[in-house]
Structures are given as structure tokens and as C-alpha cells.
Amino acid sequence: MFEPGPTTDTTEVRKGFAAGPQELQEPPWWRSGVIYQIYPRSFKDSNGDGVDDLGDIAEKLGYLEWLEVDAAWIGPICPSPMADFGYDISDYEDVHPMFGTLEEFDEILETAHERSIRVLLDFVPNHTSS
């Protein structure tokens, strides 16, 4: 049986075992964060056309902050022929006109970040359309 002496280095003996208390690490924010899903076609229709627009999302960010939401997950807003309600994307670098403009999306990002809300977008790489 091994018994360390006064000058024996026990590093080799402890390999594979915790040499001391393990440091607790914070889990990634998304493991315990509150994520609020926004489906742009039905979130809030303020102009009566049957479809939400980005301005409506920006308008409700204060409410999401009040709810202590960590992130807003926004469904597809990119241009699409709408055969799959926006999941058949034809242009990944723009916003579908029915939802608004890139400038309005930039406003959502800026306002959300001011309120410490992250913004997640549905990214649909396997359902492209022409």
C-alpha cells in the first residue's frame, strides 16, 4: 500500500480523481434561460392585414423585458414564396416585405439588446426555394 512521505508528490496518485473541489461553472444561458417564441405571421397584427410585422415585435419588447425573457426566438422573416409559411426561404439576406424591412429588423436588434434580450432567428438551411 502506498503511503506518501513528507516530500512525496501525490500528483500521480490522484490522477483521475478530483485534486480538490471542482470549480462550479455556470451553464450556458440557454440551458436555464427563458426563451419567448414569436411566430411573425400571428404574433400581433396591428394594421389588420392578417400578418404581424416587425414593428409590432419591436413595440412589445418592453413587455418581454417585463416578463424577464432572456431571448426572443423569431420565426422565419426572410423572403419566401410562402408555400411553407416562410420555411421555404428564397433569400437569406433580406426581410420579406410582408413583415417589414431590414431597417426595422435592425431596430429590433438594437432595442432588444438595450433591454438585455437576445434575438434568435429560425435558420432553415434545408428548405430553400427559388
UniProtKB/TrEMBL annotation:
A GO molecular-function annotation: alpha-amylase activity
Positions in coiled-coil regions: none
GO BP: oligosaccharide catabolic process
TM stretches of this protein: none
InterPro entries attached to this UniProt entry: GH (IPR017853), GH13_cat_dom (IPR006047)
Glycosyl hydrolase family 13 catalytic domain residues: 37-129
Protein name: Glycosyl hydrolase family 13 catalytic domain-containing protein
